[in-house]
Amino acid sequence: MLKDIVSKQKLKKEELLKSQYVDRTKEPFAKKWLDSALIKVVLGPRRAGKSVFSLLLLRDHDFMYFDFDDEVLAAEGSLSTAELMKELHSAYGHIKTILFDEIQNLPAWELFVNRLHREGYNLVLTGSNARLLSMELATHLTGRHMPIELLPFDFKEFLKGKKFEIDPEYKSLPEKHGQLLNLLDQYLSKGGFPEVVVSNLDPADYLEVLFDSLLFKDVVKRHRVKFSTQISTLGSHLVNNFASLYTLNKLMKTLNLKSVHTVAKYASYLEEAYLIFSLSRYSTKSRQRINSPKKVYVVDNGFVTAKAIQHSPDKGKLTENLVFTELVKRGLKPNLELFYYKTRNDREVDFVVKKGHLVTELIQACYESVSADVEQRETKALFEASDELKVKKLIVLTWDEKRTVKKDDATIEFIPLWEWLLERPQE
Fold it and tell me: With contact defined as beta carbons under 8 Å apart, do 164 and 179 qualify?
């Protein structure tokens, strides 16, 4: 049985390598570590392109490939790792580089990986569980791994997938500029999952099925959740209330769940599966950070549209969610380098960017045309926060407006969202 699986997966690998794919923004970063002794761990939600990304990363190398997310394998149950290595070498010969797909499906995978690492194998792993990135990797592969987080397409990758030529002179070319804004509107609502972008699939149907599949495979099944309806309801509720504040107590009462502990546990499972992110309020006081409500964001705007109960999701909130996911794609770690903020007058700033001990940047995301009322609301919060946090870099991301607003010695830059999305990533 195992011999057949290895053989079929080898053919699958060869077929995949022949196809054309969108180059990913993370590739240069990942390539820097490819020949190092570190274990390369590519993490992100299912269907975000981790397998293809890893295959292309290794395309100039001889490597063995095995996918632990195989249905036949799942039906058989237990797997002998000694037998697996025998069959891999039987199929590929004496090769010391291996790509293991969806490694979290192998029980005690970390012991197996550690052994191969000690034996001198160059390993690339993929996984669909954020916990691998933190607890399991930190515990079992301390100092011996390089995490590479891969989320759905960023806007540059989306444009490549749509075969739209990126040109810096959009403003002087009205036709191109209009096309770009049309594509940005599509990206805002349909998101960046590769198959949706490249194959022009119906995002609502595809992403609703994908969301439910992720919920079952990476949450209910992995954690043996007894009350699957409860966690499904929680997931749908959080997605429908994206870019909004929540507390565990309020969720418990709204959804009639047993305890705050249950809500916290279920929410952590949804985060592990890369379905949602929770963002804390920025404060130098740890007690205020812990006790303040959190904001929930969704890994991809397409999930919001697919799971939305309301007829049309709020484009202002979709813009905010898009900016959040872009900041994460640029390498910022939520609740370590990225927060939201409330001023002393309770005015909200969408994003606080922190580097080391210093807050370096404050960002507001704003979809609607900047009317006098909107401008006053957004700028007041930024100017107040700038004064309280002593930050000079202040940005309002707009749909398509570029200018500056000054007050005393502080300046706010209004930047079109498309222009900001096409900037060079921070990482």
Answer: yes
Angle at which helices 228-240 and 248-255 cross, to 10°: 120
Identify the pLDDT of residue 173: 76
Supply 152's token pair. Answer: 């759905």
pLDDT-derived band at 170 (thresholds 50, 70, 90) equals low
Residue 172, both tokens: 């002087």
The three-state secondary structure class of 256 is coil
- Residue 38 CA to residue 255 CA, distance in Å, equals 44
**Among the listed residues 246, 65, 19, 36, the one whose alpha carbon sits nearest the alpha carbon of residue 144:** 36
Distance, C-alpha 383 to centroid of its chain: 30
List the domain boundaries for the chain: 2-149, 320-427
| Pairing assessment for the beta strands 244-246 and 294-298 based on DSSP bridges | antiparallel
What is the pLDDT averaged over residues 407-425? Answer: 88
- Distance, in Å, from the CA atom of 236 to the CA atom of 228, rounded to the nearest integer, reads 12
123 vs 117: CA distance, rounded Å: 7
Helices within 109-219 (DSSP H only): 109-118, 130-131, 137-140, 155-161, 174-190, 194-199, 203-214
In three-state secondary structure terms, 279 is: strand
CA-to-CA distance for 48 and 6, rounded, in angstroms?
24
* Fold (topology level) of 2-149: Rossmann fold (3.40.50)
What is the value of pTM for the model shown? 0.93
Q: Which residues pair with 236 in a beta bridge?
A: none
CB atoms within 10 A of CB 177: 17
Q: Which residue bears the tokens 């002794």? A: 37
Q: What are phi and psi of 344, to 5 degrees?
A: -60, -25
CATH for 320-427 is 3.40.1350
Average confidence (pLDDT) over 57-64: 95
